[in-house]
Amino acid sequence: MIGEHSSKQYDHELETIRSKVLLMGGIVETQFLDAMACFRIGNPERADRVIAEDDVVNQLEVSLDDACSHLIVKRQPTANDLRTVMATIKVITDLERIGDEAAKIARTAKSLHGRGTPGLNHFEMVRTISTATSDMLHDALDAFARLDGKVALQLIARDAVIDHEFRSIMRNLITFMMEDPRTISSALDTLWVAKAIERIGDHAKNIAEYVIYVVEGKDIRHTKPSAPVLPDQGAN
Amino acid sequence: MIGEHSSKQYDHELETIRSKVLLMGGIVETQFLDAMACFRIGNPERADRVIAEDDVVNQLEVSLDDACSHLIVKRQPTANDLRTVMATIKVITDLERIGDEAAKIARTAKSLHGRGTPGLNHFEMVRTISTATSDMLHDALDAFARLDGKVALQLIARDAVIDHEFRSIMRNLITFMMEDPRTISSALDTLWVAKAIERIGDHAKNIAEYVIYVVEGKDIRHTKPSAPVLPDQGAN
């Protein structure tokens, strides 16, 4: 994988960017888990921390983009290294958006628990999609850390499961709202949270696609999932 | 602005990428306008065309990312040129997402008109946000085409107006749903359309921020809007 560039300093610079991306990934993953905990049990202080953490994530986005630009100028990366830098530039954007969605969930959790939620166990509605998405995000970040194209490829199919679960939540919430219009406001809050989770699933899928781009040198975005992307590839 | 690189061939390559981005921008802008026309008056064939156009946009995304990679390897851009390439890599992602949102609006328009919409003039609910957003998108693409940092800076504030309008639509729709639960389903469709429009506004804002990054060499994402970014700059 490595080997086409010789300088140790260059390796070190690439590795610094990589660890910073992983740090950013770790932060947004925790943000998401914390935001869901707030949605489940309240805890406005924790919600505030999730929201405040967004600044850290935003600053990481800006500084990582800058580091990638500098690396391009200084090292003129080619082949694998350039793909890694290109993928990093894209992954950063997805991570930043995940942070945004987590902050949105935290804000909704705060407002929902602040005014009470009659007649609707809102967390139960999103428990399944929340677990599926946090698992997917974790695995996507792991695939990025280990540059594991096989895991990344398997991940992509899991986004469809999350989208399906989202539609099912929406149907359930519509039923609730129709049966008891007093639940409309909190049902909508729950729907926004479900939507934010579904978006996080989209971003995790994007990250998986960029991992495949780095590993395989192939851009599989917008291709049909049945296309044989990793033919005859052995275990990682 | 230009002048730091000398090769005519290089200029030509940069210009080709630029025109292709503008082509992509023109397509998604039309997609959005067409999708809104479908939402207003129906027309399932036109909605299908908007949805089909998404493939063209997706392919442009892939081929433009590829062209940017090639340019980096071949030309080793620095300073202005590198900023242009970096901004292009990011803008492409935003344009592709705008295409996605337009396709979502077209799908909702189809399903809503397919089953009729009792008691809710759904287009009137989103008329204001739709006009504000399509104007903003048009101006953002124009700012990108002319690399006009001044216009781009003014654009950024307009996103807050769109967000505000979105929240007002949501409150109105909640009132409708509470007064007549039979409208819940179509009100939710309208809400998703409003949300898609609000997202398009976010992407237009991102594009404006990248224009400022190219022109000013400054990354103003996540800074407070009051920060003086273009001090004492004369007319474009």
TrEMBL record, chains A, B:
Q: Which SUPFAM superfamilies match?
A: PhoU-like (SSF109755)
Q: Does the keyword DNA-binding apply?
A: no
The PhoU domain is annotated at 22-108, 128-211
What InterPro entries does this protein's entry cite? Answer: PhoU, PhoU-like_sf, PhoU_dom
User: What UniProt keywords are attached to this protein's entry?
Assistant: Cytoplasm, Phosphate transport, Transport
- Which one Pfam family would you cite for this protein? PhoU
Biological process terms in GO annotation = intracellular phosphate ion homeostasis; negative regulation of phosphate metabolic process; phosphate ion transport
> According to its UniProt record, where is this protein located?
Cytoplasm
Identify the GO cellular component terms for this protein.
Answer: cytoplasm
Assembly and partners? Homodimer.
Family that this chain belongs to: Belongs to the PhoU family.
| Function according to Swiss-Prot or TrEMBL | Plays a role in the regulation of phosphate uptake.
Name by which UniProt lists this protein: Phosphate-specific transport system accessory protein PhoU
Q: Which organism is it from?
A: Massilia glaciei
